[in-house]
Every structure is written in structure tokens, then in C-alpha cells.
Specification:
alpha/beta; 2-enoyl-CoA Hydratase, Chain A, domain 1; 10 strands; ClpP/crotonase-like_dom_sf; 2 domains
């Protein structure tokens, strides 16, 4: 994968097209993440990453197709997430789409032109328990830093599952969300069965999945798909990220992991993990003192 940094904008831009906020001050200048070996050297990057200060801005970059996902895009999403995981300077991630949409789902026509590529990526990886389709969405949960999706325009099918892989989701009120797979004769299989049932009551998850109906960003927030509604999702996501990174990095990381695991763990296991995390943090505070003092 070629992960390319986006040139910083000289002035502020509206997030309605997935643009980044205005350039950071000199002491938080934009920088690319650690370079990775190109997966598709002859192609333009379909997923870009720019680090501004402590925040990595990851953006789907296939605007002419409403950022519909191709097989190379899935590979690039995973590769970018792995780059971020290796970069200790990144404290939060904002995930967005370039152009008129967040993501219109899988580009099925493109994928089916290479059945061998689909078959290869469909095989699960024993060390993660996911295949490429699932890992492209679930890998964001594996990061120790918070990931915030900024959604505008279409957020359909695989795009919705990608958004659900983030920890938090900020949506434009007029964005269009849909668990669209049954409309195409498929089922959500990019980690969506897990994330939908984590976020929603079972009957609501069934309603959205079985009907494949479209919901607005406003309704998505009301029923629990989205976290917040904003006319400028990227700017709000950045503000939220900046608020989070004011707090202790290790405490935020432990809290994210505890909450993720608590969703499917027994109370006994959760209590044990709480104690272990707190003892780890208390031992560190005993050495370093309280933050800000």
C-alpha cells in the first residue's frame, strides 16, 4: 500500500466534503506516519493519512465512486491502521471520506472482476480471527488510541460497518445510513454482526438489517448508530479528539480496552480486568505523580 500524506490546507475547509480543518500551528505541523512498503506501487493511494499534531486523519480517497470500497482499499485500510499502531506520537484517529460521501459500501462489480482476490481475502487469518473484509473494519477497534468516524453523505453497507468499527461516530444530520446488504442479496460480513448487536437492541439491529432501509444522520444518532450529530462532522470529530487527548494516554487506552471487552465478558472477568488496569495505573502514578501536578 502506498500511504500518502495529504497536503495541509492553507485555510479552513468545510467538512461536508471530508476536508481537514485549517492547518495546525507550527508546533503541531502536519507530518506523515512512518512509511510502509507500497502494496500497489503503480496505483494512486486510495486511503490517505496525514498526522496533524497528535491526531491522524485517515481519509478514503475514491471520491468519483463515493469512496466505494475495492479490494486494494481494504488492504490499504489495514496497512494504515498498522502504521498508526506503530507510531507512539499518535493519540487519536479521525476517519473520514473525501468528496460527497463517507463510503457507499463495497464496489461489488469491481470485486467480482477478480474472484481470486475475493477468495484469498475471504480466508480468515488465524492470528486475528478475521479475514481481510472483517479486519479492514475491526482493526480500528484493535488500536489502543480512540478512533472517531466523521460521516457525511452515504454511509452504506461496508461503509457503515467501517464507521461502526470506530469508537465514536459524528454524523451530518442529512447523511444517509443503511445496513444495505440484504438489498443486494448479501448479509453484513465485515464485522457488522458484532458491532450492530453491540450498539443496538437486537430488534433494532434486525429492523435495519432485514429491511435495508435508509435512515438519516439524525435518526442514526437517535437509535444509537451514531454518537453525535454535527453540521461539520470532521471539525467536531477533531474537537472531540482534542478533548480526549488532553487526558492521560495510558488511562484512555485502558478505558477503551476495558469497555470493549466488557461488552462480551462476564462480570467477574470485567471486575478482574478493572482491578489489573487500575493497579497498573496506580503504580505508575506512584512513580510519576498525578497528571498536571
Amino acid at each position: 500500500m502506498t500511504s500518502s500524506s495529504v497536503s495541509p490546507s492553507p485555510s479552513s475547509a468545510s467538512a461536508s466534503d471530508g476536508s481537514l480543518p485549517s492547518a495546525a500551528p507550527a508546533d503541531t505541523a502536519a507530518r506523515p506516519p512512518s512509511p510502509a512498503a507500497p502494496l500497489h506501487p503503480s496505483a494512486q493511494p486510495l486511503v490517505t493519512c496525514q498526522t496533524v499534531g497528535l491526531i491522524a486523519h485517515v481519509r478514503l480517497s475514491r471520491p468519483e465512486k463515493l469512496n466505494a470500497l475495492t479490494l486494494p482499499m481494504l488492504d490499504e485500510l489495514i496497512q494504515v491502521a498498522r502504521q498508526i499502531r506503530r507510531d507512539p506520537g499518535i493519540r487519536a484517529v479521525v476517519l473520514s471520506g473525501h468528496g460527497d460521501a463517507f463510503c457507499a459500501g463495497m464496489d461489488l462489480k469491481s470485486a467480482l472482476r477478480t474472484p481470486g482476490g475475493v477468495a484469498t481475502r475471504f480466508l480468515p487469518r488465524p492470528w486475528t480471527g478475521t479475514n481481510v473484509f472483517q479486519e479492514a473494519c475491526w482493526v480500528w477497534r484493535r488500536l489502543s488510541v480512540p478512533v472517531i468516524a466523521a460521516v457525511h453523505g452515504h454511509c452504506l453497507g461496508g461503509g457503515l460497518q467501517l464507521a461502526l468499527g470506530a469508537d465514536l461516530r459524528v454524523t451530518a444530520p442529512d447523511a444517509t445510513w443503511s445496513v444495505r446488504e440484504t438489498h443486494w442479496g448479501l448479509v453484513p460480513d465485515m464485522s457488522g454482526m458484532r458491532t450492530l448487536t453491540e450498539l443496538l437492541p437486537l430488534d433494532v439491529a434486525k429492523d435495519l438489517t432485514l429491511t435495508a432501509r435508509m435512515v438519516s444522520g439524525t435518526e442514526a444518532e437517535r437509535i444509537g448508530l451514531a454518537t453525535r450529530v454535527s453540521d461539520d462532522p470532521v471539525a467536531t470529530a477533531v474537537e472531540l479528539a482534542q478533548e480526549i487527548i488532553q487526558h492521560d494516554r495510558q488511562a484512555v487506552s485502558h478505558a477503551k480496552r476495558l469497555l470493549d471487552r466488557a461488552a462480551t465478558a462476564s462480570a467477574r472477568a470485567t471486575f478482574a480486568r478493572e482491578r489489573l488496569a487500575q493497579l497498573t495505573l496506580l503504580a505508575r502514578l506512584n512513580r510519576t505523580g498525578l497528571p498536571g501536578r
